[in-house]
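Example 3.2
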Amino acid sequence: MINTIMRLYEVILKENDEDKLSFIVNTLEKNPDILNRVYKMIRTDPDSEDSIKPADYLDPELTDPETDYTNPVVKKAFIEALTRTSGDISELEEFLKTYGQANYIDTKKIMDGKTSWDDWITGSGEVSKEFAMDLFTNLFEFTPSVMNSPRGPGETGLCLLSPNITFATKGDIRVDGIEVEVKGEKSTGGGRLRNGRDDFGSPDIQGLYDKNQVPPDLQILNVTGNAKPQKTHFLDVAKGLENFKSGLGKEYMNLLINGNYVYAEQSLKDRLVGSWKNLNYVECYDILKRIAFTNYGNVLKGKGFDVIMLINKPFRNCLTFKLDSLESHLDDFKLGSIDFNDSINGPAVQASMKR
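Structure, written as tokens:
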């Protein structure tokens, strides 16, 4: 489509009026959708006579209760996304006229476990579901700072498409009055579950080595807890220390787990520290991923959040659940790698959606 429009421009610049007109007519006959796109471009051009100016409709007095667009950066991106969204000019105009009163997100469905975008993105009146879906897609990767808080993928689109979803002052979004932590995925790699540097403690593993005069070859700091480790697993470090000095392996495990995951469920930490000698990598990770998640979850709950939402663009799906109901949703998404030497994320677990 873009190449065809560019060809139109080339012809307009290079050929005489008769050739230009003939080329345009032939092109529009073969690609009728271009007519709507060009017409829409002209009608939304601020310098065009009798143009539709989205900014004129985006006034809090007209859109009440919807005001999430009022941040200047958000408003500019919103207008740009609207002009790129599929649909003819009448649909755009109807969207603007009813903005703030119409709702394009079914908030009950999006809050109900694992869903597809198709389940909760809706049309309204003369504005089609396809228009709303395309607009949300256009807005998904827009990540502005609002209320001095950086907003992740998907958050802005949700807030702009429903008056029942708003930017939250202390975190991500509020859905029907419920504070929700959002983890948006622009790709399939996922992201780390962390809020900030204070999520974890800083255990002095080197101090433990020095105090016990551990041989240099056993002084390993860069460890992983993955089920299929690509580098030294902390279980192997603990075993080496235990062989060097009885009880030192358990002391290391206690310091590593309790010293890092200061907010995690204590029963899970006790389980891992108490049984590490009898665990293989997979069994160890099965406990560790729960420790890492509950550490993250308890930090969120301390900030007033009770619900997490994972939303994925490539798969166009979403998972929303209460932080205390992890066990019911472990099959719905993937908890991935854990690296104890990550200077940015600490030993946060990676999370991503499944198809």
